[in-house]
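Deliverable D4.2, example record:
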Amino acid sequence: MPNFQRLLDWRFWLALRPSALSEKAVWFLLISFIVILGIAIFFRVLMYFRKKNPSFVKLFKKMHRLFLIMGLVGLILLFLSYEQIYLLGSHFWYLLWLIGFLIWLGFVIRYLIVQMPREKEEIEKRKRFLKYLPR
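Output generated by the structure prediction step:
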């Protein structure tokens, strides 16, 4: 049974020489980061199916970059923690990773909600304008 009380202790997060991760924690993190990389591949594939709509391609490209980079950084963090490397293997890097992931995801969601409808509207205006021009 995992000790969740440790997660609330600041010494656990800020220790420069962290204790070793349990086998279950290693497997959980490894599977999580591999799933994140799988999601990155999924968004890459979606980019090819939506080539006709540039705003969706841009959204999928942003999502692909987010999940690819964060998945790779997560795997590097897991390796450093597994090897118990001084300072670089500390647990607070996972908190920074999570904060960075959430902030980046917020920017992507902002693009989805705010900027993408504007881009669609501009594309529609341009299509209506080009409809009346000779080819």
